[in-house]
Amino acid sequence: MDKPPAMSSHDVVQRVRRVMAIKAAGHTGTLDPFATGLLVVLVGRATRLARFVEAHSKVYLATARLGVRTDTDDLTGRVIESSEAGGSVGEDQVVEALGRFLGTQLQRPPQYSAKHIGGERSYRKARRGEVVQLTEVSVTVERIELVEYRPPLVTFRAVVSAGTYLRGLARDIGERLGVGAHLTSLRREAIGSLRVEKAVPLDRLSAHDLISPLTVLGSIPTVELGQEDRVAVSHGRAVVDSGEAGKRVSGTVVGLLGDGELVAVARADSGWLYPSVVLEAP
User: Fold this and answer.
1) 2-56+193-215 and 58-191 in the same fold
2) Which positions are annotated as active-site residues?
3) 3-state secondary structure of 208
C-alpha cells in the first residue's frame, strides 16, 4: 500500500480487511500517521511472514528542521528547545554530518516509540510525563545522501536496517551539528525489493491487488517440492534439501514451493530444510 498522510498504519489495515472481506490482516513496519509511503499489509496465512519482511532494509526520503527540538523528535511533538542557529548552518557542514552516520552505530530510540519497557509501550509512559530511559540499539545506515538543503530544512535519503528510527536519525543529525533538529516529513520508498511506485493507492484498493507471498520475501533461494515432500512440509516436517544437501550455510532462509506457489519458509541445516512458517494447510 501507498499510505496517505493523517492515517495510522492500523487504519490502513482496517480498510484492507473491509475491502478484502478478511479478518486476518496485519502490517509490517509501522508508519506514523504523518508519514506516507510503502506499507506492506499481509493477509490470511501470509501474516506469518511478517518477521521476514520486517528484516529487510528500508529506503526513506526524510526532511529534518534544524534548530528546533521536540519531545517526540518529530513535528507532532511539543517544542522543547528552539534556536535561530539552525538557519545558519552551512551546506558543507550538513553533508559532513550526514556522512558521520554511515555504517553501524548505536541509536537511542525516541521516548515516544513502541518499545516495551516493563511490559508497557514507551509512548504510553512518556504521555504520562514519566522519564523514559531507553536502551540504545545497534542500527546500520547503509547509505545516506543530501537531496536538498534549504536552511533550516535538510532533505535526505537514507537506506537503513530494520529497527532504525528516522526520527532518531533527524534528532541525532541536529545534535551532531550542535543546533538540534526534528523530523518534519517522512516517506518510505522501499522495503527490500518492493518499491512504492508499484504500491496501491488506498482509494483504488481492490481484491485484484493481492500479490504473491513469495514476492514480498525478495530474492531468497527456492526449492520446488515434489508431492510427497509437499505433504510432509504442510504438516511441519523437515525434508531433504534436494540438490544442495550439505551445501547451504546453516540458517539460510529458503522458500519452499509447490507448483510455483509459496508453501512454506524454511531454514537450512546440514542438508535438511526445517519449516519455520507453513502457509499451506495439511
Assistant:
1) yes
2) 32
3) helix
Q: Give CATH for domain 2-56+193-215.
A: 3.30.2350.10
Residue ranges per structural domain of the chain:
2-56+193-215, 58-191, 220-278
Residue 247: DSSP 8-state: T
Question: What pTM value is reported for the model?
Answer: 0.90
Confidence (pLDDT) at 235: 96
For residue 40, what is its C-alpha cell?
506492506
Fold of 58-191: Pseudouridine synthase (3.30.2350)
CB burial of 148-167 (b: ≥16 within 10 Å; e: otherwise) equals: ebeebbbebebbbebbbbbb
Peptide bond between residue 152 and the one before it cis (omega within 30 degrees of 0): yes
User: What is the bridge-based pairing of β-strands 36-38 and 181-191?
Assistant: parallel
Residue 98: is its pLDDT beyond 60? yes
Instruction: Tell whether domain 220-278 is in CATH 2.40.50.140.
Output: no
Give me the residue label for grid cell 498504519: 9
pLDDT digits (tens, 9 = 90+) for 218-256: 888 999 999 999 999 999 999 999 766 567 888 899 999
| Residue 116 burial (C-beta neighbours within 10 Å; 0-12, 13-18, 19+) | exposed
Report the distance separating Cα 263 and Cα 256, nearest Å.
6
Chain centre to alpha carbon of residue 78: 26
How far apart are alpha carbons 79 and 82 in whole angstroms? 7
Q: Long-range CB contacts (< 8 A, 24+ apart) of 141-144?
A: 141/101, 141/102, 141/103, 141/105, 141/169, 142/57, 143/102, 144/98, 144/99, 144/101, 144/102
The number of helix segments (H) and strand segments (E) in the chain equals 7, 19
3-state secondary structure of 256: strand
Phi, psi of 46 (to 5 degrees): -70, -15
